[in-house]
């Protein structure tokens, strides 16, 4: 019986009072859903080579606002062949992102994923980052709260369409009950 209890505890199903993890924590098992898409499901050929185009600050109304971040992040393609994903902080456990086309310098701020808040995420999940993508895939995986929206919290899988991100799958994780502003970020009592 002790082996079963310890096994459940370490797999994330039972939480001790002194554990930093609880029922709302995004756990490693949340990334192993058998229905979730894989990077190879959205494979692209990596054909682009050469220098990235200078950023076109007229391509999006917010591009000039973030010109320093965009210039610093324009390091070359890292996503979907010729796109560059750039991120910068927007508060504790929060980051914003933009996607730049290395062919023409166009800047995109995807409506479905302007920001990600990666709070109450297990350390084993965060060690590989809260945003995951590959140069040879159109799939992007975001871990946390897309656009700071608790109702959309979990592990979200998006397909890059060439101009925006489209949600294709999500592993939902609940957030704390609304019991007052001070309680919103506190773990709920366990019985």
Give an overview of the whole structure.
The protein is built from 3 helices and 8 strands. Helix content is 11%, strand content 25%. With 191 residues, it is α+β, with helices and mostly antiparallel strands. The protein has helices at residues 2-11, 67-73, 123-126, and strands at 83-91, 94-101, 107-108, 115-117, 131-133, 139-146, 154-160, 165-172. Strands 1, 2, 3, 4, 5, 6, 7 and 8 form an 8-stranded antiparallel sheet that branches. It is globular. A hairpin with a 5-residue loop joins strand 2 and strand 3 (107-108).
The number of E-state strands comes to 8
Report the end-to-end length measured between terminal Cα atoms.
Answer: 21 Å
- State the order of secondary-structure elements, H for helix, E for strand: HHEEEEHEEEE
Overall geometry: globular
In which range does the helix fraction lie? 10-25%
Overall mean pLDDT: 85
Kindly provide the radius of gyration, computed on alpha-carbon positions and rounded to a whole number of angstroms. Answer: 19 Å
For the biggest sheet, the summary is: 8 strands, antiparallel
Structural class: alpha+beta
Approximate strand percentage? 25-35%
Give the uncertain stretches in residue-range form: 1-12, 14-18, 179-191
Number of helices: 3
């Amino acid at each position: 019986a002790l082996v079963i209890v310890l096994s459940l505890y370490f797999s994330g199903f039972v939480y001790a009072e002194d554990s930093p993890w609880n029922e709302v924590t995004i756990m490693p098992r949340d990334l192993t859903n058998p229905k979730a898409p894989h990077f190879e499901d959205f494979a692209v050929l990596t054909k682009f080579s050469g220098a990235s185009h200078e950023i076109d600050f007229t391509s999006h109304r917010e591009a000039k606002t973030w010109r320093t971040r965009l210039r610093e992040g324009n390091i070359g393609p890292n996503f979907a062949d010729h796109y560059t994903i750039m991120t910068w902080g927007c508060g504790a456990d929060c980051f914003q992102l933009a996607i730049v086309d290395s062919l023409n310098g166009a800047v995109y701020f995807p409506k479905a994923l302007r920001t990600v808040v990666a709070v109450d995420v297990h350390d084993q999940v965060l060690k590989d980052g809260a945003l995951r993508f590959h140069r040879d895939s159109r799939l992007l995986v975001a871990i946390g709260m897309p656009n700071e929206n608790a109702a959309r919290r979990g592990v979200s899988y998006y397909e890059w369409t060439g101009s925006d991100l489209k949600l294709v799958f999500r592993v939902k994780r609940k957030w704390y009950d609304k019991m007052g502003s001070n309680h919103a970020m506190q773990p709920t009592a366990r019985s």
